[in-house]
Each structure stands twice: as C-alpha cells, then as structure tokens.
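name: query_chain
kind: protein
chains: 1
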Amino acid sequence: MNTKMKAMLASYLRSFLGAALAAGSIAGWDWKVVTAAGLSAVLPVALRAANPKDASFGKVADVVEIELNKVAKAPIKKKPVAKTK
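structure:
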C-alpha cells in the first residue's frame, strides 16, 4: 500500500470517527444515526478523492509525489570547504 492510499484511508477514518462520535454522544448511540453521520462525513472526502486536480489526492498529488521522490533519491552535492587561516 503506497503513501497516497494510506493518507486517503486515514482521512476517511478520521472523518468517519469524528462524525460518528459526535452523533453518538448527541443521539444516544443509536446505530442508525451514528452510521448515517459517519457516512455523511466520508462523502466529502470521497468527492475530494474523485477530483483529479486535488493537490492532496488527485493527479496533481501523483506528480508532486514523483518529483519529491526524485529529489529525495538524488545525490547530495557538497561544496568543498574553504580553509581559513
């Protein structure tokens, strides 16, 4: 599982749990309300993932991840240290 997929799943889980806990504490832990609130919270994240221009999960994120990997794997060029007297 790549880092993009892990980030998406973590985002879904945070959204679901936050809404489910809030709804559960207000509605008295009725499973229908908790489930509906959790799924309602996941919908915006799913819409964001479907957007190809989204900077975090869309196609732009793929390009950014590729470029960051190139930079991370590139050898470091060190400048020679000038000796001082």
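note: Residues 3-72 form one domain.
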